[in-house]
Amino acid sequence: MGKGMLSVCGEKQQVVLLFLIEIILIVLIGTLTTYGPEANANLLKNLKEDYNGNNEHNRKPQSDSLRIYPNVHVMIWIGFGYLMTFLKRYGQSAIGLTFLISAVLVQVALICEGVLHFDKNNKAYLSLSSLLSADVAVAAPLISMGALLGKTTYMQLVFMGIVELIVYTINKYINEHHLMAVDAGDSMYVHAFGAYFGLAVSFVFGRKDKPKEHHLEGPSYQSDIFAMIGTVFLWLFWPSFNSASLDGDSQQRAIINTLLSISGSCVIAFATSALISKDNKFNMVHVQNSTLAGGVAIGTAAGMMCKPIGALIIGSLAGLLSVLGYKYLTPFIQKRLRIHDTCGVHNLHGMPGVLAGIFGAIMAALATQNSYDYSLYEIFPARAPNFEKLTSEMRNDYGILPGNDRTALEQAGYQILALTVTLLMASISGVITGLILRTSVCGSVAEEDKFDDAVHWELEEEEEEEGLHEISKIKERNSRANDQLPMGTI
Amino acid sequence: MGKGMLSVCGEKQQVVLLFLIEIILIVLIGTLTTYGPEANANLLKNLKEDYNGNNEHNRKPQSDSLRIYPNVHVMIWIGFGYLMTFLKRYGQSAIGLTFLISAVLVQVALICEGVLHFDKNNKAYLSLSSLLSADVAVAAPLISMGALLGKTTYMQLVFMGIVELIVYTINKYINEHHLMAVDAGDSMYVHAFGAYFGLAVSFVFGRKDKPKEHHLEGPSYQSDIFAMIGTVFLWLFWPSFNSASLDGDSQQRAIINTLLSISGSCVIAFATSALISKDNKFNMVHVQNSTLAGGVAIGTAAGMMCKPIGALIIGSLAGLLSVLGYKYLTPFIQKRLRIHDTCGVHNLHGMPGVLAGIFGAIMAALATQNSYDYSLYEIFPARAPNFEKLTSEMRNDYGILPGNDRTALEQAGYQILALTVTLLMASISGVITGLILRTSVCGSVAEEDKFDDAVHWELEEEEEEEGLHEISKIKERNSRANDQLPMGTI
Amino acid sequence: MGKGMLSVCGEKQQVVLLFLIEIILIVLIGTLTTYGPEANANLLKNLKEDYNGNNEHNRKPQSDSLRIYPNVHVMIWIGFGYLMTFLKRYGQSAIGLTFLISAVLVQVALICEGVLHFDKNNKAYLSLSSLLSADVAVAAPLISMGALLGKTTYMQLVFMGIVELIVYTINKYINEHHLMAVDAGDSMYVHAFGAYFGLAVSFVFGRKDKPKEHHLEGPSYQSDIFAMIGTVFLWLFWPSFNSASLDGDSQQRAIINTLLSISGSCVIAFATSALISKDNKFNMVHVQNSTLAGGVAIGTAAGMMCKPIGALIIGSLAGLLSVLGYKYLTPFIQKRLRIHDTCGVHNLHGMPGVLAGIFGAIMAALATQNSYDYSLYEIFPARAPNFEKLTSEMRNDYGILPGNDRTALEQAGYQILALTVTLLMASISGVITGLILRTSVCGSVAEEDKFDDAVHWELEEEEEEEGLHEISKIKERNSRANDQLPMGTI
């Protein structure tokens, strides 16, 4: 305790910066946003519907967002927060910084999201669905944080998150609106993006300071059980995450596909963990992370007709790949590329995210009107006939809008293009962000203070420590006794 | 261990009393309540609707209560329960007593609630919405419990809770039905009421025994991480709490406002905590509590058109106020007023609750038909035109009932009146309850047993303790060795 | 550490078996299941409804499954998982193995469930409601796991679970479809079945190795707080579990009844725990388990008109019975019948499950058309008039199908018969399963390795252990010092 704590420079400036950021957010949200129509008291329509609904026991059903939102909310704050508490002396920072970062970034995400969807008065509508989108967006910087856990100041994370969300928004917009690529569960736009962005930052950090072994970089018995709270809540609600942007039969399919995929990855991650470890025992790192890889891997294709067996196979594959990644790839990239990845986000979000993109492209290549009927054009809007070819039946009875007349293979090509764009955007912007972070505008953490809650928190002296203190005092006295003994006996 | 455990007098009587209370509750619920119409098998209408709904794939949507109820349920039991586990040796009592107290009090709340809404047969209807109201009511005594945590027997808490719920019900009824004050998120009726009631009890306790420093009144590294489970779940589901009594656009607005406000308080609480502490580090007490203050502060106005910027500002203000309260006010009122406040409920529920009441009054003063249209009369029913002035359009198309023709300023005045009434009711009834509790009918906890789970729980001897025991044995032997040494060497 | 770890034979084979099981599951799910109509993109109807719904702001309400599913999901993985973390050195296995076992078994349950409901193409439909049923089914083997916690390999649990789910499915099918017995909350089919199946397995284990005291079979201070996470989440969402298979007024009634019953059991479990323990303190084992007994005990009758007082009384009785079971019955059956029951599932699921069955039969005997009107035939379909007697009004307006014309007493008889069949099926199949498990095809755990995470997990050397290690080194050196002393002093 106490030693080296002050090596973090500029704490006071960081605090002032944090106040400043919140003030800027207040001004921006104040000037740029307004209640969406569904949340506006000044729309007589709402009142009328409420009344007639209530009156005739025939109330307007709540939107799906209202139901899925709490689950995704739990994933972001409890899921990511507790998942990262696995380090023995960094649990308070894991849960505390996730809390702080997410509270800042959810506001940033609302602004980013809003700017893309200005109404005619240059105001962005706030609604349950924009809140849900913001929650999903926040997942990306939290994933990047996983790669950097224990090695940054909170202000570095805040700064990184703000930059990342801006690039995230642009990347998602290009891929969704220009390339018209499909990614229901955001496996490319959130998971792969977040992972490679974070790894790129870590890569830049590694150029300066080669990653070293650190005595605090490991779990304790209790911290592993805390981390499982995060794992299990993420695992449970992943079907909500992957189906959040869908509705109707697509939503139900996404829930079923995700459950199957993530169950497959859970079982195969356990099995692979035991297969490759000494004495065939399970490894907590694998169980905490790789069990979730199936949720990522099915994300892009979650709403597609990939069949139950397709979901199970891709999930199982992801579980296998993820554990092997922890065992063989992570040490390799740390040693050779000097990329240190505290939580192993490359294995949970990076590779499974890429896998998801590829699987999504394959499913897109296989999608025929035979197996989807007109829903094909709901799921892949770019495949819909163009304006001339669109029949009035498709338009009027099924609400299909004119598309780009793409073939299955063309759509698959655009899916792969979206994956490539995402990986490039993430890596390049990550490297640039890393270079800025290295300038220590946002402070930095000294080697000896890494993975230590004492950097961020006023910690109480503790009994256990007193216990160990006691021991060392005894040892000391003891050794003096031993030292004296010979003298005494002489 | 072992010493002084028996200083709690009358454990046997407390147990008997607990049985007795449950028996009385069974009799009262048995005689006073019945299933509400929506839960009654004996209403043919339900069966018919079920059938026709199921038949035509056009099922009746579930009521909002069915969706919000589980979230509020989690807040009460997990949220409050784990939030209070921050003490190093009182975690089992924190979560265990919250569990017990809430299970008793939810039944009491159902009765209190029911008595106000008797049907023509003098029966109170049980329904999902009465269950939800009961959950909300239980929050008040749990907040009071926060002020007294570690210093009472369980029976003192049960007794206090029963009295408090009765006064709570009366206070809420007067303010809602006679003063027609609005408090969507119950920031006045639950938070301010619960806090000042608990502080009043603590004030009476402090007259008898001056609050002293206690070696167990502090966290451990692990207990702080447990407490964060409570904090984060409360934070996540607070939008549900504040929107529980609303529907339609008001509900959506309450969700948006609460998310913004509580995000603001989270960021500002972190920043303020770092600003005022040594070395600009975060303090776990602030992070666990003050981050939530925005949820309280927006409560009264949650459904109003306070604009996104209004929500953010009031939340940020609450976060600031709450941390400053912990730092400067709590020590002051403990020293000068002898009011000991274990969890600092004054900073999380008391001041932010008052702030919410004032903010609600300001918003009410600013509310015009221009910004709300006819919804103004849905949100502030007392502002609706009286019977003569009410147009048939308002009545028939929008379901507006005749009101009191109040002006905006009049409504604001009534809001302040409701706040004042609430604070008075809480303080006075709290003092009286405290005086009764001091008579030790419900037992009492001796100074040396405070904040110690051993008062309530059969604790196992533990390894760690064995470890420490071991240490002391070694020390003893060692010191004997040291004692003998000189003799040996002489 | 390290000693005796290798006494578990065939770890490698277990891993291979786990891979094999997942591959078989993939093949079976691949060949036997398909998306249900609601999740099928190839049904134009879905698209049309989506469009028209979305178009006119009159969207199809989500099915209840979509709302209840997440709650039951939390109960299975977080609830059961953390409930079993109470052992001081088996927490990682408790939460980790629950995770693994459930992920395997939810797939098995989907297949079992599906095989019973093949469509005309010999395909089972996957839907939200089949996912929900699978979650409920998984509870049965998790309950059995509670009886065996700490004494088996993971493969023994997987194997047991697969066999158990097959018998579970057959038992439930016979009782529901042939005996037409009602068990809304599955208290007989899941709780009683799971408990007696597990106890039967434990009985067989006890024939071979008499249950002995084990130094690791106890909680630590922290593990008890972890376990409460499970308890409280189970307690909170139990109303969802009991109402999962119901809708309309039955569902609301089930929620109300379950809340009352489980509140009663909570209070009475606390009171009884204090009554029978030394110094009238609470016991964590009772609080973690017996507080939930009311949820089980009301299960069968949850949807019936058992009145609020009925729900409270049966819940309170269950709480009382459960605590007395822990205190007096568990030691007895361990000593006399050599049935070791790690979590005391007999007290939480076994006896309360039987109580639920009996209470359900009594309620069935008391059910008259007077108190239920035509809903009687919705709740007890076998009591509906037969084809000749059924009026066209009942058929057309209320959707009542022809039944077996049973009287109230006949229905009660069938309820008791279903309970008896369930207990017999569970016990007999449990004994057979136990005999197979004893053959050590799935490995076995040696006496000294029981209740020890080191059997399943690669554990890191820990600080604490280092601490204790330190102590023993000091002791050693110290004792040498002491040994030398006399020599020195001579």
From TrEMBL, chains A, B, C:
- Bias-annotated ranges (Basic and acidic residues): 468-480
User: Which stretches make up the Ammonium transporter AmtB-like domain?
Assistant: 72-440
| Similarity-based family | Belongs to the ammonium transporter (TC 2.A.49) family. Rh subfamily.
Record-annotated membrane-spanning stretches: 15-35, 68-87, 93-112, 124-148, 154-174, 186-205, 225-242, 254-276, 309-329, 350-368, 412-437
Q: Which UniProt keywords apply?
A: Membrane, Transmembrane, Transmembrane helix
- Grouped into one coarse class, the protein's main location is membrane
What is the species listed in this Swiss-Prot or TrEMBL entry?
A: Polistes dominula
Its annotated compartments are: Membrane
Superkingdom assignment: Eukaryota
Segments carrying the region annotation (Disordered) are: 466-490
The protein's name is: Ammonium transporter Rh type B isoform X2
Specify the protein's topology with respect to the membrane: Multi-pass membrane protein
* A matching Pfam family: Ammonium_transp
